[in-house]
Amino acid sequence: MSDQPGFFDLEHHYERLSATGDPLERLAGAVNFEAFRYRLEKALKRSDRTRGGRPPYDPVLMFKVLILQALYDLSDAQAEFMIRDRLSFLRFLGLGLADAAPDATTIWLFREQLVKANAMEKLFARFDKVLTEKGYLAMSGQLLDATLVPAPRQRNDDGEKEAIKAGRTAEEIWPDKPARARQKDVDARWTVKVSKAKPRVDGRAQPDLAVPVFGYKSHLSMDRRHGLIRKWTVTAASAHDGARLPELLDEANTASAVWADTAYRSARNETLLEKRGFVSRIHRRKPPGRPMPKPMARANAAKSRVRSAVEHIFADQKQRMGLFIRTIGLPRARLKIGMVNLAYNMRRLLWLDARDAPA
């Protein structure tokens, strides 16, 4: 019978997926996810199960679920559905059609355990070590920048806003409304994003566009040679970019040059760079009330040709990976952005391996 399923139908379907270039199969082949097992098990601190009970899902499998969420911008419920629906997801996770798949609640609980253990930085550092072992050392200097990551806007009155700015917790602000307090993000902040307006066709200038944004800010340092994220941190949206420079500097980079925009230029940062042996390639600000000197403008333009590469990371994360904070609180935002940074580096590794592969 032509419509009767065969024993090898699934195997043939996987072969066709591989022939068309399954990116998850390539990712599973390029990244040794077992390298994360030790850090995951240490963060989870699971019992030895001497008291019995249902065995938990493998931590590496659950970690790969979080990678899928970061790559494809999936909520917990969407991830549960897609794991059951897509054969490529099942193969990436090492599951068969008859195997039990984690549900949305299991995924949420696993992520919460990583948040409480503050494990994201160690997991990211572990993969950075893997990159170094594969020969992708941080080289040719580093590029620093930051981008705003929106979060759902909060609706608070003036008194509640003042309490949030004073550093009070949600439980302290809404003691009689615990359900409301659980939905309030007191770590995110408002800021204004100013976009430079392009001149009109007739040459006349237009006013700059100021857009209010509520959420967090992703700060990162990228190595110039390979385009990989090497250092990162997360703050509220109102935090100043330049204040994050000390924690973003990568001492392991083989070159001393540091590129960044004018937000990072200050006397303190310039002194810090000199003291730690770095060479500043930070943009210079236009003199107030005067036009920018032509030599300074040419120097800034030359720096921009290098520094602009870091913008491609943010564009990829926001457009392709759908970076948006839907969780509550800075610790969860750190994990979210950290997973997106890690997933980006994994995809970048695929590109680097393909580029360096012999023809």
Can you describe this structure?
There is one protein chain. The chain is an alpha/beta fold and 359 residues long. The chain folds into two domains: 9-117, no CATH class; 136-151 and 188-327, Nucleotidyltransferase, domain 5, CATH 3.30.420. The chain contains 16 helices and six strands. It has helices spanning 9-19, 23-30, 37-44, 59-72, 76-85, 87-93, 104-117, 120-133, 158-165, 170-173, 178-182, 245-248, 267-275, 294-307, 309-320, 330-356; strands at residues 142-150, 189-195, 209-223, 229-236, 257-260, 279-282. Strands 1, 2, 3, 4, 5 and 6 form a six-stranded mixed β-sheet that branches. It is globular, with a radius of gyration of 24 Å. 30% of the residues are buried.
Main features:
six-stranded mixed beta sheet, single chain, 359 residues, 2 domains, alpha/beta, Nucleotidyltransferase, domain 5
Briefly say what this structure is.
By secondary structure, the protein is an alpha/beta fold. Helices cover 47% and strands 13% of the residues. It has 2 domains: 9-117, no CATH class; 136-151 and 188-327, Nucleotidyltransferase, domain 5, CATH 3.30.420.
Number of strands: 6
- Specify the biggest β-sheet: 6 strands, mixed
Distance between the termini: 45 Å
Annotated CATH topology of the largest domain: Nucleotidyltransferase, domain 5
Q: Please state the CA-atom Rg, rounded to the nearest Å.
A: 24 Å
In the CATH scheme, the class of the largest domain would be Alpha Beta
- Average pLDDT confidence is 91
**What general form does the structure show?**
globular
Oligomer: single chain
As for the number of domains, it is 2
